[in-house]
Amino acid sequence: MNDYLIDAQDVYRVYQRGHQEVQALRGIQLQLESGCFVALKGRSGSGKTTLLNILGGLDRPTSGTVKIFGRDLSTLSDDELTRWRRERLGFVFQSFGLLPTLSAYENVELMLRLIGVSSRERRERTLHCLHIVGLGKRVHHRPYELSGGQQQRVAIARALANQPRLILADEPTGELDSLTAGEILSLFQRIVAEEGLTLLMTSHDMMVDDYVDRVLQLKDGQIVS
Ligand code: ADP
Ligand code: MG
User: Fold this and answer.
1) How many other C-beta atoms lie within 10 A of the C-beta of residue 45?
2) What's the total number of domains in the chain?
3) Which ligand ends up closest to the CA of 46?
4) Domain limits at 166?
5) Does 94 reside within a domain?
6) Mutate to test the pocket of ligand 1, among 50, 93, 168, 200 (most ligand atoms within 8 A of CB)
7) pLDDT tens-digit profile of 71-82?
């Protein structure tokens, strides 16, 4: 047993493309503690999304071990992994991933329905999370009535709903102008400090360095710094 929130040892991921093999990850070693804001940087194709998906149990490594909160993910079946992910992790994506017909409130609350939280607790938690991200006054707006930055805030509230100790964000500022991107990065910084969770985000944006505690550089499927 160790204290690492993320402990990845010698992780490889090989994709089959036709009869060719693509080595997307080549021997990743990664240990992260609780309460840190970390950027995973690297060019397009360097393996950022692949690594994030494996750490979040959305994909499995070809070889190597991934332990999250001390639990070896390879010991979980696909169904167990899905359940574990919903209960324990938060995810944020580049294009927000909100359901367009649902309000901000409903998008957040849906996550809590999926894991069987009681209706009273769902309401409190949903409103609390929308408040954290500064959308307390827009809870009934639908995605199309919100700006890109506001939509990403809804997605962040949704990621916080189950009170995760780890949030994984794949290019969360990729579709935002730099002013809005800076606001989202500040929000992440505040959430990490106030909630004590770990937030690992991918990016190829220079400006993230000013916000995060640590930068990991990925090159051709390996962490180079
Ligand atoms: P990044 O997020 O840094 O742009 P990715 O993790 O998406 O990088 O991709 C890493 C490498 O793996 C790239 O060469 C990409 O083309 C390849 N790759 C990613 N997903 C697949 C897939 N589903 N099938 C085959 N190759 C893939
Ligand atoms: Mg990617």
Assistant:
1) 13
2) 1
3) 1
4) 36-46+78-223
5) yes
6) 50
7) 999 999 999 999
